[in-house]
Structure formats: structure tokens, C-alpha cells
Amino acid sequence: MWGTEWPRYEVIKQDTPKSPPQMVGSVHATDPEHALLLARHVFVRRPSAYALFVAPAEAFFHVTQEGLKGPWAEEAEEGREEAYWVFAKRSHRRSMVYGDLVGRFLAKGPASAIKEALLHTQGVAFWAVPEGLVVGTEPKEEVIESWFAPAKEKTYRLQSYYGLITAKEVEDAP
């Protein structure tokens, strides 16, 4: 039986050339290119962006601070080394960002990549994804201009700016 939902992709956004890429949420899409387009419309409508990346949600290995002492920490992973992007959430405080990219690590598996990241940073939760599954925009000027320039001109307004439509106003409409 076929599912009724498209696969989920995690979205990674980089605001400026000097800022770290950050996990900002997810979209459901048919493929990575479709996910990039949807991510642009959802996460780059008003704030600026320098680059945007997506990767299949099921490719992410996730562990919380409590899980850092779990059984996976003792297991040796087998296989060939590959590059992993590792993200860390630094506090329990709620924000619009799930995790910051803390580095790119060569490892035999995602758990090993997180163990390596722990030598360089702290956090309350970690995600690791194989670099080969990450698809993104190129940091070329023409790509940045065509993908992200329209958002620079949009004025951000809180929802309260627009006021409320009352039932009386709806009834009075011609």
C-alpha cells in the first residue's frame, strides 16, 4: 500500500557567509530539489539567507544529552569512513533553530561522528547526517541573487499589524 505523505527533509539554512549553517525545520517533498524549493518558500520568505541545504530526515542520527551515555556510545561502528555533518543544540531554551553545525567529521558511522564532535563542543542534543546526502544551493553570487534577493525587499510585520476582521465587517461586505 502506498503512503499518502511525501518523504520529510530536514532544512539547513546559512544566513551569512560567516554564520554556521543551522537546522531550522523540515518540509515534505518528492525529492531533494523539490525540498529545496519548498524550503526557500517556507524558511526564506523574509529573513536573508546565504545558502540552503536539505537532507532526508531518515538519514539523520539523533541523540539527546540523556542518550549520550546509552549503549550506542560503546558500540564500534564498522565500514568505510565517510564525512558527516554534525549539529548540536546548545541549550534547552526554545528557539527557531534546532541545531548549529559544529563541524564536518570523518567517521565510520554517525555515532562515531558525534563522539568526535563531543571532543570539540558541548550540547544537549546532537544530529549527524552523511554529507553525501546533503543537497544545497551553491554559494555563487548568481545563485544567491536569484534565490534569496527577493526576500530582502519584503517588510516583516507581526500578525497584529493587520488587525482583526470581525463578523460585522464580513456581514457588511458587498
From TrEMBL:
Gene3D superfamilies per UniProt: Phenylacetic acid degradation B (3.10.20.520)
Record InterPro entries: PaaB, PaaB_sf
Pfam families, sorted: PaaB
Protein name: Phenylacetic acid degradation protein
